[in-house]
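User: Structure with thymidine-5'-diphosphate, tokens only please.
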Amino acid sequence: MPGVLITLEGIEGSGKSTQLGLLKERISKHGLPYVCSKEPGGTILGKELRSLLLEPHSSGKKWCTMAELLLFFADRAQHLEEVVKPALHAGQIVLIDRFEDSTRAYQGAQGIPEEMLSILRQLVMKDFRPNLTLLFDADPIKTLERANSRNSAKNGFAETRFDNEAISFHQSVRQEFLKIAVQEPERIFVIKADEHPEEVAERVWSAVKPKIMAAGFLLEPSSKPVRVLKQRSW
Ligand code: TYD
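Assistant:
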């Protein structure tokens, strides 16, 4: 596929969304074609799954961990089929706010064994992986403060689901993310997220630029996309 897939990961309040906004701005300033999406909820049907996953049910019932895991993968299967792969085929830069590493980190921290996660990954994704994953790493005590004030400002409901769980859960999620980064250093770029957003954005760009150039995109301060296509297999 001629496009490039870049995913953004990290615990809540780690500044992913701010950085996604800055990265989009930079990419579009260079006149490059891009698509921006998120998980869960990157498709029309996936938005329904997102509500099922993140909004509290009127009955007060909660999904068991296994059902939740399968719903995240159902959302991902639809997203890959309908949005991500077509955009990559069309030669776009695809930016996704959360992807499969979130499942490994969050559901992993909830006790789903690694072997089970890898069976589902194989089933849904085969060898498909992002070209680059930006992992925004920060201390949960700081990020949760941020996420909570953001959610209450939104008058937010269940998107605070994990925010209300113990700090220790988020510490486990952080450790799971860092574990993946150690396992796949060539794909995952860890960025210290608790610095000034502009400094973080520079670090983001230093990781993104070589990847998109290696895929044949030429960065010109132009309004038109200038690119050289290269044959590449996943
Ligand atoms: P979202 O509002 O997108 O959170 P954020 O702004 O922090 O990215 O909520 C997504 C929530 O779903 C978040 O708590 C992480 C969780 N999640 C999983 O548990 N597993 C997954 O596979 C994904 C994609 C998200």
